[in-house]
């Protein structure tokens, strides 16, 4: 083989290898472009771009008058990118001590050298710690502005690596007030209460931002790409009255503590609309305090006891065979039913009384005898009457967790010969406080049963977007004739019966007491010598023209006092008294010429007195040019009488307020000592005496300090 041929062979081999490499490159290019192109482009996009979810602002929950019950406030997690492009070693080392001192002083949780050591280590090993937390807690906006001025952090995200991350926190401006009804927010939205029920409206719609990677591993927003603005949630306008809620909770807490009760609830409802104005739920803690931890008003069904007797009365009256003036012999207050004995609370019984009195004094024996007289052998008819009152159906309340009522039907599991008699007095049935109140509210509302309403409207920027009208569950629960008789009986309960302690001269209350033993599982209603009771009162006011209905249920009061009129009744009355006192439409307008007698006035400076009487629109006689006056009243006006004392004589300050008296005396060089407050009743130095400068005048006031 010649040298020339050898060279040609070698060139051919190199050419062939290069050709193969070229073909391979072309094949790879085509594979990348055609076969793998779509997938690789998506990967590149993810590396180069990322979507940032922009959280929508959660809507507020508002009271009926617009006051905020729940709102979201921005808080911030404080983090650092300890490998930020602009955060050089020289900047870090020159400022780390100052930053550590500032953080330690601000948060007060540990020493400054602990902060310094932690940040030094974090920077040293910052490969996987480019989002390092530097604060022990989240901070509010005002705190963030202050922290943003700290060394290193004041240089911003690129040069200082400072990354504050906004995290909204849900707060209740009124603290624990109505807290359980308002509810809580967790990951994923509302967990309980209104927060959960209206989560779909409150949460809003999150937005979207596209960010692009730039040198230094930083990300900036790409404004030209797909951008979706977040849509804030609606504000939810509730029916809650903050003042009534406060009253209900305070009254409930005070009386629960006084009776050592396990838990209790109170609900106030507007009769015509079904609006829930207040709903309080309290449970005793181990230390004896009370907190809202569970919504007993909605989620706990119990045997109601005697408050169920009103439904029994309607069933009896609707049959048309019973009149309120009919009599029934309750005997000695004991009635044997198979192996069970029913007793009345009055020792020795009530004897022979009218039907009206049976329900007014809440005679168990009388009610059972009446039910047996009318419905014995017709148990289905009795239960059907209860079903016609809608007592077997939930109210459909907006807050999740409402328990379905339990009212057995003849033939159901557990039905026995005792069932109808016991159901008639509030046993072998289970209802929640809200369900029982809805029934009584219908009685107050002329037989019209309305659904309890907690949410009135959805708002956006103060404008109504959607409103929720009152819903009628049943247009008439009974005949008008029956309704009149039932309302007469419920008024009689307070005027003559078991709730006489709630009677007052200002307005009438109508309602029914309830005292029920609480079943304790397999032990029945008694465990050894222990019997747990539930005390309740449900009714409405003012009885002649009902505006509000209310129920109070107290669970496990002390054994010595457990009757509904003594435990639940006073809570009801405290609430109703407050409602009455703050409702001007219930007060009769004064007729005639106005005040019968003009008010008394302290002595004082003429200009001050003239101003006050003018503001009160009261007749005050104009005085001649003078400074200090005392006043007297005639039949038509208040008349000022000038007080004129030379500077060298002690003035008369009796009848003046303390401030004016001190001015008059000290302006003449006298010292003043006083006892009490109000109006000057006497002075130790007689008016008109010559002034001895530096001497003390002792003033006796009309009121004493405690």
TrEMBL record:
Domain named PASTA: residues: 644-703
Chain segments annotated as transmembrane: 7-27
GO cellular component terms attached to this protein's record: plasma membrane
Gene Ontology molecular-function annotations: carboxypeptidase activity; penicillin binding
Pfam families on file: PASTA (PF03793), PBP_dimer (PF03717), Transpeptidase (PF00905)
Protein name as annotated: PASTA domain-containing protein
Localization: Membrane
GO BP of this protein: cell wall organization
Keywords of the record: Carboxypeptidase, Hydrolase, Membrane, Protease, Transmembrane, Transmembrane helix
InterPro entries, sorted: Beta-lactam/transpept, Beta-lactam/transpept-like, PASTA_dom, PBP_dimer, PBP_dimer_sf, PCN-bd_Tpept
Main location: membrane
């Amino acid at each position: 083989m010649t040298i020339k041929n050898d060279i040609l062979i070698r060139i051919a081999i190199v050419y062939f290898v290069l050709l193969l490499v070229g073909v391979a490159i072309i094949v790879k290019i085509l594979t990348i472009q055609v076969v793998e192109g779509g997938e690789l482009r998506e990967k590149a996009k993810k590396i180069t771009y990322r979507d940032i979810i922009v959280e929508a602002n959660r809507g507020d929950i508002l009271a009926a008058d617009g006051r905020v019950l729940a709102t979201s406030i921005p808080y911030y997690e404080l983090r650092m990118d300890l490998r930020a492009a602009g955060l050089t070693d020289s900047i870090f080392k020159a400022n780390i001590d100052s930053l550590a001192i500032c953080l330690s002083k601000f948060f007060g949780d540990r020493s400054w050298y602990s902060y310094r050591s932690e940040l030094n280590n974090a920077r040293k090993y910052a490969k996987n710690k480019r989002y390092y937390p530097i604060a022990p807690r989240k901070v509010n906006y005002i705190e963030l502005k202050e922290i943003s001025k700290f060394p290193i952090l004041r240089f911003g995200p690129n040069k200082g690596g400072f990354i504050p991350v906004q995290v909204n926190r849900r707060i209740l401006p009124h603290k624990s007030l109505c807290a359980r009804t308002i509810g809580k927010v967790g990951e994923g939205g509302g967990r309980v209460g209104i927060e959960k029920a209206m989560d779909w409206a409150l949460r809003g719609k999150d937005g979207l931002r596209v960010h692009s990677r730039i040198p230094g591993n930083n990300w900036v927003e790409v404004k030209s790409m797909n951008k979706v603005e977040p849509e804030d949630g609606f504000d939810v306008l509730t029916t809650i009255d903050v003042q009534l809620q406060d009253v209900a909770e305070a009254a409930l807490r005070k009386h629960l503590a006084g009776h050592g009760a396990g838990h209790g609830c109170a609900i106030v409802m507007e009769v015509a609309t079904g609006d829930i104005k207040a709903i309080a739920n309290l449970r005793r803690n181990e230390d004896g305090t009370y907190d809202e931890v569970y919504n007993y008003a909605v989620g706990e069904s119990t045997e109601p006891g005697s408050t169920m007797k009103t439904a029994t009365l309607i069933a009896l009256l609707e049959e048309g065979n019973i009149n309120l003036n009919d009599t029934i012999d309750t005997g000695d207050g004991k009635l044997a039913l198979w192996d069970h004995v029913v007793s009345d609370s009055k020792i020795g019984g009530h004897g022979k009384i009218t039907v009206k009195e049976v329900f007014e004094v809440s005679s168990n024996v009388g009610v059972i005898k009446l039910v047996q007289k009318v419905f014995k052998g017709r148990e289905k008819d009795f239960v059907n009457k209860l079903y016609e009152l809608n007592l077997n159906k939930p109210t459909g309340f907006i807050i999740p967790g409402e328990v379905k009522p339990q009212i057995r039907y003849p033939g159901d599991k557990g039905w026995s010969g005792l069932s109808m008699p016991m159901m008639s007095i509030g046993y072998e049935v289970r209802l929640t406080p809200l369900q029982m109140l809805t029934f009584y509210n219908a009685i107050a509302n002329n037989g019209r049963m309305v659904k309890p309403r907690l949410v009135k409207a959805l708002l956006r920027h103060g404008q109504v977007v959607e409103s929720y009208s009152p819903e009628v569950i049943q247009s008439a629960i009974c005949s008008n004739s029956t309704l009149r008789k039932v309302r007469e009986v419920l008024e009689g309960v307070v005027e003559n019966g078991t709730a006489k302690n709630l009677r007052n001269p200002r307005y009438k209350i109508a309602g029914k007491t309830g005292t029920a033993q609480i079943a304790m599982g397999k032990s029945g209603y008694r465990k050894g010598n222990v019997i747990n009771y539930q005390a309740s009162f449900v009714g409405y006011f003012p009885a002649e023209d009902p505006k509000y209905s209310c129920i109070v249920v107290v669970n496990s009061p002390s054994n010595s006092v457990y009757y509904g009129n003594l435990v639940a009744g006073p809570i009801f009355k405290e609430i109703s008294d407050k409602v009455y006192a703050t409702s001007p439409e219930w007060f009769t307008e004064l007729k005639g010429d106005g005040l019968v007698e003009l008010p008394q006035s302290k002595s004082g400076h003429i200009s001050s007195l003239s101003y006050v009487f003018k503001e009160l629109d009261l007749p005050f006689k104009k005085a001649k040019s003078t400074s200090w006056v005392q006043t007297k009243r005639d039949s038509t006006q208040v008349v000022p009488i000038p007080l004129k004392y030379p500077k060298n004589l002690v003035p008369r300050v009796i009848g003046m307020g303390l401030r004016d008296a001190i001015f008059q005396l000290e302006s003449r060089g006298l010292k003043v000592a006083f006892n009490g407050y109000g109006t000057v009743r006497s002075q130790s130095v007689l008016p008109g005496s010559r002034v001895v400068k530096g001497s003390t005048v002792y003033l006796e006031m009309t009121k004493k300090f405690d």
